[in-house]
Every structure is written in C-alpha cells, then in structure tokens.
Amino acid sequence: MVRVRFNAQELQNDLTGKLIQFVNVKVLRDGKITWDHLWVRDGKIIDGAAVFYDEKRKADIEVDCEGYILSPGFIDIQINGGFGVDFSTLPSTDMEYQRGVEKVSRGLLSHGVTSFAPTVITSPPEVYARVLPLLHRRDGSAKGAAILGKSSCNSNLVFIYTYTLKDLLFRINCSSSMLSFIFSSFYVLYSL
C-alpha cells in the first residue's frame, strides 16, 4: 500500500483498477458532515465494508485528506460563459474560441465543478452556425472540467422568428379589443 497526501502528484496518474481509500476525511452522510473513510475504484465510490469482508484486501493507495471535506464534483448544466469568456460571442478564430472554452473548463474545475454544459444564449443564426460545432464533448482531467457537449436538443428545431408581437397575438386568436388593451397598457408602462 502506498500512502500519499491529498495533493500528491501520484494521484494525477492513471488510477484505473486501483483501490483507493481516503482517510482523515469529512464526508456528507445522512445530512451531516462526519469523519469517515471513503473507498473509490475506477472513479466510483464503493462500499468499504464489502471490500474488507468480501474482498479481504487493503487499499492500493491510502490518501490522507488532512481533515478536508470530500464530495463528488458539481455539474453545471447551463452556463453561458465565465472567467471573462462568453460562449455566445463570435470569435475571430476557432482556436481563440477553443482557448476560451478551455479557460472556463480550468476555472470551473478550480471551484469544484467537474463537468459542464456550455450554453449559447438566444443569438443570430450565424452565431449558432459558428460556435455550436466548437462545443464538442470532451472528457475532464486534472487540467479542466469535462465538457458535456451540445444538448440533446434537435438543432433542426432552432427557428428564427420574424413575427411582430401583433402577428403572434393574432396567431393565438386575440381579439382586436384585447390587442388594443394590450398595446395601450404597454404604451402606458413604457411611457412611465
């Protein structure tokens, strides 16, 4: 068994198949932060009692967390940018855009976010056409959070509407008197 501190360089290596035991650590159990040991194999938390009683083995690596709290990574399912980067801003080059996405990936990881879904706000069609192909899935690492890629939404369902408010209200069968009321109310509010 190898014993290391929580920030040891050895933990940056490929740990596939290794049984890791985190000791001197606080975890959230039953709604409370408590001192405990935590066992992990192949990136998944496993039952330490089963390892002890069923497998009858010790950890390959014991990690001293020095009293820190250990928790699963956060997943940001909608982020429009961060760290000075806006995912909806057209880049001058694809490489510049990729560097911006990587900057967000690194920044998020430093705050406990291990994966994220970059989101483009409502934008002109040319923005979508240019940036969506650049937001592809990427695995996370010690260098940055995983990029979950584009959403599962069908990109053929993105429409650019050119209707005016009046057109839309007519389409939902608003009467002329209702339209007059809506527009006069809007004018009063806008004038204030």
From TrEMBL:
Gene Ontology BP, a term: N-acetylglucosamine catabolic process
GO molecular function, one term: N-acetylglucosamine-6-phosphate deacetylase activity
The entry's keywords: Hydrolase, Membrane, Transmembrane, Transmembrane helix
Domain of life (superkingdom): Eukaryota
Bilayer-crossing regions: 168-190
InterPro entries on file: Metal-dep_hydrolase_composite (IPR011059), Metal_Hydrolase (IPR032466)
PANTHER family the record matches: N-ACETYLGLUCOSAMINE-6-PHOSPHATE DEACETYLASE
Protein name according to UniProt: N-acetylglucosamine-6-phosphate deacetylase
Species: Ancylostoma caninum (Dog hookworm)
